[in-house]
Amino acid sequence: MTENQLTMIQEAQAFVTDLLSNKLSKNIRFHNLEHTEEVVAACEKLAEFYHLTDEEQLPLFIAAWFHDTGYVGGKAKDHEALSIQLATEFLSAQNAPLELSGKVVNCISATKMPQSPNNSLENILCDADLFHLGSDTFREKTKLLRKELKNFGENSISKNDWLKTNIDFLEAHKYFTTYGQETLQPIKEVHIKALKAELSELDDHTKKSKKSKNTDDIIVEALKIEDDKKKKKEKNNQSERGIATVFRIMAQNQNNLSQMADSKANILISVNAIILSIVISSLITKLDANPNLQIPFIILVVICVSTIIFSILATRPNVNHGKFTQDDIHNKRTNLLFFGNFFKMSLPDYDWAMGEMMNDKDYLYSSIVKDTYFLGVVLAKKYRLLRIAYNIFMYGLILVILAFLLANALPHPIEVYTPG
């Protein structure tokens, strides 16, 4: 976010915190600062989940801070109107653009019961406002709401009626985001079952000597099961991501090492080719005049040629036959991740084979392991040949220098002139 956007959100937080801390009735036990902070936190979680842009997050967070500020007016009914008024006045004082104010107003309006969101931002705020329905804090929050209704001018509600009201509300409510539908809805269903079980016990007016489980135990156990499922799923996802990361890092490292080997081999080939061209062009005409240079010349040529040969061997590609059969795929004998095993196959055959491999996790991981292994084998061969080439060049260069020094130290043969 930009500095101006962060500043505006911080100003909104400070304004709402002061407003709800000092001007909100103490009888309001649910729609207070704590609830607002929880809604903002839920919006942050959903914004991160859906990768919202900074421009999308700004109106969402401001609307989240202001959506229940209308309760400072002392009435629950149509409190959204006062919330919109307070938010509009705040944004006007901040010189916010009209487009931003419009988005904030629409988000707050969408939270009015029954909720009526029209876009993704409004969907997120509506789900964040009732995030607690699909969490383990539902029982605690519904008790606070009942106290608020009792102390905020409503008639006292019997436990039986309160259970029915909650069941009807939960069954009528729906989450608008996929996160809410997939993550929060299953937990909400658990709460509905628990409330119905409690209502059934009240309606029967019979007490059994042995209770299998009370409602809280049912909730705790159900939430624990859901939590265990989520943890197991997250653990499996983390494990698969970890495995994928390891293979990706290994592949990148091997690719970098292979490129380094090819680069070093190219350097050797270029250097020795230049040395050969210079030596041949400059020394070959002097061999007749100074026969002592013949041996150093031959040694230098042999060394340069040998170095070039081993450098070429280090970079020379090796391609397989490029075909496979259905039996190879069924028996998991072919690594489809290496082009040398499929480049002669038709696209439909390769597409079918890849589908078989992708549907078999063991086959897929086995192929990745094989690909990594054989890349390592090829890489080891490259570096072995490259080491030989460097050794030939290094020690040969020393030998050539010594040979040239010795050739220059030896007396040059004297040509005897015989008159014709």
How far the N terminus sits from the C terminus, by CA atoms, comes to: 99 Å
Helical residue percent band: over 70%
CATH architecture of the largest domain: Orthogonal Bundle
Number of helices: 14
Structural class: mainly alpha
Radius of gyration: 39 Å
Instruction: Please write the CATH class name of the largest domain.
Output: Mainly Alpha
Question: How many beta strands in the DSSP annotation?
Answer: 0
Q: What is the general shape?
A: elongated
Low-confidence stretches: 206-212
The succession of helices and strands, N to C, reads HHHHHHHHHHHHHH
Defining key terms:
single chain; 420 residues; mainly alpha; Catalytic domain of cyclic nucleotide phosphodiesterase 4b2b; 2 domains; 14 helices
Summarize the SSE layout with pairings.
Layout: H1 3-22, H2 33-49, H3 54-66, H4 79-93, H5 98-110, H6 120-129, H7 138-151, H8 159-172, H9 178-204, H10 215-283, H11 294-315, H12 326-330, H13 347-358, H14 361-409
Descriptive overview:
This protein has about 425 residues and is mainly α. Helices cover about 70% and strands about 0% of the residues. It contains 14 helices and no strands. It has helices at about 5-20, 35-50, 55-65, 80-95, 100-110, 120-130, 140-150, 160-170, 180-205, 215-285, 295-315, 325-330, 345-360, 360-410. Helix 2 (about 35-50) runs antiparallel to helix 3 (about 55-65), helix 5 (about 100-110) packs across helix 6 (about 120-130) and helix 10 (about 215-285) packs antiparallel against helix 11 (about 295-315). The longest helix is centred in the middle third of the chain and has 69 residues, at about 215-285.
